[in-house]
């Protein structure tokens, strides 16, 4: 019933690769070279080779603009006489293609192709990159002629996924259905194929099988394990169209991949809960490939009722503003510079979480607190917000300590805390830092949740002098935190954006568990909550009205739902109604703290 449409529209001349391939790469772990002979190409000197590898590394890290500049400088500095010059030219062209400058990429590759020996590994690299570039330019026949001979050679990893997905689309454009199915089979046979890829392949193959001569259809369906008419039945349904505008390339690519994974899970495209709910279709746009207003406008033309914004501040502000201008509902996954009523703010701000912890402390009856924070801008901003949340209360801040952002040892700070003897301690740190700090606090007898008999200077430590309450946002927390440091954190109150796959007792918190052992992040949780919330709201109004932006906006302000980021509900201004999610460590589990 559920399907993911990664549309070509809205990504000028990038087509299938810029929409489907990022999804495939998301599910295939690290890229792998298809031919180990690539390692045989060396530079004329260690310095030249180091320069090239450094520039190439920028591409693999997603820093496309920086990588393109570095490769251009390498080619200019060393010239055609350098053994690595041809390979640097191919990599330079790849960077240009990924930056939507296919014409410039083609200008580099055309003269290079004729200069290479036909059977060499480098010739294959040139042909593959040139074929992908011609595809991006819309030169279908040229692209097919270049890429088709490579299909039996390249079967695994990122290169294989990109090649076979592209060829499948090229053969479909030429109405060569058997050839397109052959490309899907080759991708499916790869050892690196993942469940999400297989889902995509089956949905594409189902439609192609129905177009084959009747005598071949049954055999085709058996090959791909699909049912007759499967696509037609799905197409007749009228789904809720959700536009996702996410970074799928560059330095923020990992953010987009995480949000997309959570959204796919909520849409039952990677497993999910399989609960009855409204039909959804996800329309993905890569926010790094064009102007955000143009991408949002294109999604509106395609019929999207809702826009899910990028998770970064400037992009979230711009995308939500454009959606409101076009009469669409927006769900913001990032902080915004201006809060407006036409957007539902799904992400809780860091400030709101710090102040929720401060308010909990004022209700606890404890009267002194110390702050131990990293010297980063995040640590200092959270410290200020926490202190502001205590204003007007009886709680006194008795010490404010800081440490280097990447510190792993906190003995000096722990000793100072032991002498100050605060009743509570605020730690605006990541979960990994919380593990280290809490264990060192316990070893020194500063916290009262772990039985030790000696203080930081070896003196007998009475229970009354220990920290009774630890407060922390515990950024990125998951199962590891409780497994490694749970015994030191008993009774600690945490305000994470999400709790990973951990169950929460007394819950208004949905558990997001992929069942694979992989820990979901807060970005997974935001993508999951966005799609799950929209499905739930649309189901409520489906019987009496269509799921338009107007009806969804009204319904979402009236419903409440257990979310992976805590209870989901919104007021008339689009802000979340409940305060930041607070949980208490209890044994090896968590308990939700109700307001």
Overview of the structural elements:
It contains 22 helices and 16 strands. It has 595 residues and is α/β, with parallel strands linked by helices. The protein has an 8-stranded mixed β-sheet with strand order 8-7-9-10-11-15-16-12, with helices on both faces. A hairpin with a 2-residue loop joins strand 13 and strand 14. The protein starts with a strand and ends with a strand.
Structural features:
single chain, 595 residues, alpha/beta, Serine Threonine Protein Phosphatase 5, Tetratricopeptide repeat, Rossmann fold, 3 domains, 47% helix, globular
Write a brief caption for the model.
By secondary structure, this protein is α/β, with parallel strands linked by helices. It has 22 helices and 16 strands.
In the CATH hierarchy, what is the class of the largest domain?
Mainly Alpha
Low-confidence stretches: 1-39, 230-237, 450-461
CATH architecture of the largest domain: Alpha Horseshoe
Question: In order across it, which strands form the biggest sheet?
Answer: 8-7-9-10-11-15-16-12
Report the structural category. alpha/beta
Strand fraction equals 5-15%
